[in-house]
Amino acid sequence: xxxxxxxxxxxxxxxxxxxxxxxxxxxxxxxxxxxxxxxxxxxxxxxxxxxxxxxxxxxxxxxxxxxxxxxxxxxxxxxxxxxxxxxxxxxxxxxxxxxxxxxxx
Length: 105
Description:
- The protein has 105 residues and is mainly alpha-helical.
- The chain has a domain at 10-73.
- The chain contains 5 helices and no strands.
C-alpha cells in the first residue's frame, strides 16, 4: 500500500472533480471523490469508514491512481465471474448433438 495521502496537481484535481460529478458509473465517481478527499487530508482509515469498504480497497485505489492515473480508477475489462450460457435447455443441446451425428452417418 504505502500511500498515506495522495498529492494532486491542479490539473489532476480538475480531472478528478469532473469525473466525480459527471461520469456515468457510480463506482468511478466514488473513486474520484475518494482520491480528492485524500488530497484534502483524509487518511485511508477515515476514507474506508466513509465509503464503507476495507482499508486495502482504498489502498488499491491509491495504487491504481499512482500507477495509471485516471485510467487506473476504471474497472479492468474481463475481470470477475464469466457468465454461463444457460439460455438453451440441456435437452435441446443433446438433441442437436444427436441429430448432427445422424447427419454425418
